[in-house]
Predict the 3D structure of the following.
Amino acid sequence: MIDRKPAKPIHVIGGGLAGPEAALQIARQGLPVVLHEMRPARRTPAHRTGDFGELVCSNSLKTETQGSAPRLLKEELRLMGSVSMEIAAAVRVPAGHALTVDRELFSMRMNDAVAGEPLIAVRRGEVTALPENDGAVRVVASGPLTSDALAAAIEKLTGQGRLHFFDAISPIVDAETIDMSIAYEASRYGRSLDGSADYVNCPFSREQYLAFHEALTRSEQHHGQEFDNPNYFQGCLPIEELARRGVDTLRFGPMKPVGLKDPRTGKGAYAVAQLRRENLRAGSYNIVGFQNHLKYGEQKRVLRMIPGLEKAEFLRYGQIHRNTYVNAPALLAPTLQLEAHPHILFAGQISGVEGYVEAMSTGLMAGWNAVRLARGQEPFVWPAATAHGSLARYISGANPDNYQPANITFDLLPPLSLEERRRFGRDRKARRRRQCDLGLEALHDFLQQHEAAA
């Protein structure tokens, strides 16, 4: 039998979501891996711990609704044996149709998974260089808060300046300080996976909403040179930025009252702020969609204008931070390899995807391909019909002149054939379910071929 074990371990840089998934996939395929993480010795502006898999922003991994693109991405991960998805299922908290997790337990289980793999060596400390000729395969999954030293090494290696956009974090409230004589528990349209009321809802009258909107637009933000002309990610705008776009923008966005009625009165509200559980014991809640860049004193003043939060205590205030990513279409192949240095792969948000599950997905793909490179095999290109293939195809093939990170959406998936579009007509949900079915069928075929070639 030929021993295909490489002389050198594979190096994975970054202990967020993509890095541990990549490292665990590599180890489960029998190859040694060194997982580098600079925390806790070197902190970031947003992380609070040195744990693997720390969820910095929301604790939601998005919808589990059948026929949705985020659900397809998660289903594909499950089929491919994603450790992140196994852990998420074990620490899930109620949140309607969303897959939402207890963030502390998620990180704890991820730490345990890494510690339980004898082929993973954890190395704490900042990586400041990317050697080009030492024969090792590397996965760069250093995340949106990549250190300046490593970012400089990436710039030197690629010959391209880094890009960035600004992302924001929602505040978290102590559950015991929510006034439940005003707020009420309910899911939108009464829908949840088990029939429970998964959100705490804070109802606004018209007068309360207008006063809140005015206070929000007049509130004082943090200042700094890099925030003079911020390049916000459009899928995660600060709530004060949304408020400035029109008096009703919030009512048609994160504060929409549609599908919600107070069970005590049977009536709806003019606007609603929703709170979602942070952990299984329901000891804290985050204010959904209320990411912001206000000074902490301003946050306390303005957010206490939310009905039911007049005496709220905040366990974490909202904040904003810079997210760094490379110009992937100019640099990466669909295999996630750096075109000019094929032994280096990129994964996670630094590769140009946005979202927790998207980071896990690129981590899994980079992990699988790192194994193949270490064994002298051709790396995989996932089928275009799959959510994974569509993500890889987008980040490697989008227009590099105006590149922005992307979540998985149906826009990235190949359109149905003309025959099938005619078959489903204007039934948009049926068309999307069909796209999901085609994606899963393509992945099944891909995995069968992979198993035969292994």
In short: The mean pLDDT is 88. The domain at 10-162+326-453 is CATH 3.50.50.60 (FAD/NAD(P)-binding domain).
